[in-house]
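Quick one - inputs below.
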Amino acid sequence: MARPTNTNAFSDSAVVPGNGNNCGQSACHAPEAQKEGAAAGTALGRILRDKKKAILTKWLDAIMVSFPSGNSTHFRIKGDQFTNPTGSTISSGLEAIFEGLLSSPFKAKNEELLDGIVRIMAVQDLAPSQSLSFVFSLKRIIREELGAEQADRQLSQQLTDLESAIDGLTLSAFDIFMKCRERIYEIKANEARRANFRLLQMADRIDSVNGRRTAPKGNKLTIKEER
Amino acid sequence: MRILFSFIAVLALVLIAYAGVKTANLQFLFGVVVPYAAIALFICGFIYRVVKWGSSPVPFCIPTTRGQQKSLPWIAQNKLGNPSNTMEVIGRMFLEVFLFRSLFLNTKTEMTSSNRVVYGSEKFLWLASITFHYTFLIVLLRHTEFFVPTAPFFLDIIKSVDGFFEIGLPRLFLTGAVLLASTAYLFARRLYIPQVRYISLAADYFPLVLIIGIAITGMLMRYVYLTDLVSVKVLALGLLSFKPVIPEGIGPIFYVHLFLVSVLLAYFPLSKLMHMGGVFLSPTLNMANDSRMTRHINPWNYPVHVHTYEEYEDDFREKMIGAGIPVEKEGVVNGK
Amino acid sequence: MASKFSATPEELSKIDHNPPKKGWMDTPVEFKEHTFCWGAKGKNLAALELPNARDWSPADEDWKLPENWQKIFLDGMKERLGKYRSFRLFMDICVRCGACADKCHFFIGGGDPKNMPVLRAELLRSIYRRYFTVSGRMFGRAARARDLTIDVLKELWYYYYQCTECRRCSVFCPYGIDQAEITIIGRELFNLLGLNIEWIAGPVANCYRVGNHVGLEPHTITSSVEFFCDDIEDVTGIRINPTFNRKGAEILFVAPSGDLFADPGTYTAMGYLMLFHELGLDYTWSTYASEGGNFGFFTSNEMGKRLNAKIYAEAKRLGVKWILGGECGHMWRVLHQYMDTWNGPADFMEVPVSPITGTRFENAKSTKMVHIAEFTADLIKHGKLKLDPSRNNHLNVTWHDSCNPSRAMGLLDEPRYVLKSVCNNFYEMPENTIREKTFCCGSGTGLNASENIELRMRGGFPRANAVKHVRDAHGVNMMSCICAIDRATLKALMEYWVPDVEISGLHELVGNALIMKGEKERTLDLRLVPLPGKAAKE
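Output:
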């Protein structure tokens, strides 16, 4: 009888943040990070991987600052993808970005990694600077965590590469943010258009004074909403 | 602040009783007057609150449905989540009141890093609540031995199960320890879960601290400062028969315990603890989802100003006729 | 706007993990852009004979309240404490266990602690304690009681128009405390002061005079429906000629006016028309009772009753035997739990019997109104419809349980049965986001305006996130639902969060699958989009 056909919807799920979206897959002109992960397989990469937990914790702190005081509490609580979608999208998204920077070869595109988080940040009534400062803060956090080690000359070069990859991420984040904001205004416009479309369609064919249909059938407006 | 306030308040209560008995010899006040007053306040207050709730009518049939409705005969109804008659409502209320079903259903699915779904973390609230309430009940029942000349049949069963592990002498009653532990958990989660901490009031901490105080003083009496149970029974039977006596040889710790219990009783009707009575009256739980089968009557239903069909037709008659819609008054224009 | 861009690096690097240090009573409300709706226009309040009719804006310092607004508010509260046991009880028995805290979609999506249902209720409880309890009068702030000041009123208003009365919190509350009940009363109190929002007051004023929220006049309704019939003819080759305001029909059909107005609801309306035509149902539409939905319900109990009265009045005037209701969420909350009590008894009608299957709808024997999902499920069960579900094969469908039919009625398996009969690819969303635990679209109870778009996007995120999951896991590209507000607002929600998922009503998919007598070979769906693999051979 009326049983859900697929109650075990989790079975093949993966917590992949922001994969797949139409937010300008081709339109992001930010400098592509290297085909290899910026710090893949390098000495720096190994060091950062060891410090991953500390870095991600600090990074999560940094993004939470963007929210108004108190609003971030819930997002920090460990919840799952469905009971705490915002929090889990953010924390798993940060991890994915970090892994992306360290992985070899660079697995995913910037905008795929960033989309989940930025899409959330774009509707929190925050300034773009507040919404996206978290990407910059990764640079500071990495340097803090490296401490004295960064003086090493070999590391220093690798660090510069990594930081330019982060810069690339930042630019992509701005692209996504702008697309999201534009999308919001498109949505508003679409809603208005959907609300008026049928009326316009009718206006072309009925005489609103006596209510009689005036135009012959088939004389339809051609502004049917694009799909 | 809210937390500190609760601790200070309970500590003050302890000191008042202790000092009152130890230094001022106010045994009669703390052993007779206060308990009588507290019980009177409890009974009157409880009745007042319930009557007050009962005096507000239930104008609409508004059950919160938690499952499939009764509709077509071949669709299985969820009778306990979405009851359609009184028996099913009783079933729903039973699960709610005795098993805390809503809290039990408050599952959180957690996704582990290996993408395995595990259920359970939110069961702790349910577990702590249900152990708290049931151990409280058992401890209460255990106390009946003080109020009846011969022990009722259930007491031996409770005691033997309760002291099953035969630890210590006198034997450790599990319920006391579990009560204390679950109360402590309920208190701790108010501190450690940020959201719950944010919403908690002094009125949430105070009863918990008070109950912890009651449990500790009770256990102290049983295991540390052994109290003369025979004298306590004399006092209790005296209270019950309205011939109060203050027997000799009861230590101040007993009076502290009794005073805290009295405060709890007196505080009960003033506070959220009234959820004990309120849960039975909650219209979202205790109503059958039968509002399309039987008309629910609103006692204060009153006539309202509506826009009648006649007024509507007067507004639009011409357009209606133009569009071929039948009208009541053909040929009348603009209501004239 | 300028302030948005003024955050300094120092401000940005401050780290604050915890809830505000100050308690919620000391955290003043801040009206955030894109989060609240515009104030009701004076002319609409006046048209409805509602008090304090004037133009006002929530963003203004001065709300143009009457001199004695506190007294009006508190008197109103006192009156309602005596009239609604739910209200008095829910003010008293909350133990603040926190089970509801993370159940509200606005809280999950936006994180504002005052959107935890328990705290949203505490905002009003603090007033209740101050003026209606002994402890509150005696201990004041220590008992978390506070004076009703203008700032407190504004805070209440701001958050009570960030509640969609979806009842999800009530499902998890051990005492069944329903924030919707508290919000309903709260909004009644605001309406005593003329503090409605335009997105509610406008539709209510329309509905009162013209008969429906969107303000379609009678001739516009008929031509709207004729348009649908034109499209149906294009798709099926069959001409349908429905009737309006016809006396002596067996059944009166009432749908949400949104279905006559905007896509994709309009496709659902086509589905109704095709189904009824195929059955040869003796039914009529009404232009007077042309609205099943009821924004009056979001204004006050009295306003809800005033709008709802038209349905029984029209049924009586036309002399129908029973009423069939279309796909709409809060409409069914009202019809199921309120209509009979408000405007019954409906003893001038008969117990609904399906003229096709002979099924007696005992579950509607008093109200005499049947949900179309119940009606259609019964038809399919009895094999009365010829269906070709393969016409929906290009759709991977998931089902969104709308809040009100789920948690104020329990209509869960009927639509699923219909859905599984008309399409082959159906996938449920995760268990704790469906059925009675379903997530709101984030735009219910008149919050489907455009000025609060960010609030809607945040509030709808938990739902969208679950959709995204089934899209990624199963390629879902269509979410079906039985609510007109859902159809309008989930569309927008999907456009933002999960852009490749479309929204449909249940009967749009029924209309697609329905094999009609004498129809031509279908090459288009109801959206006039070519069916894959069945394109016209021209």
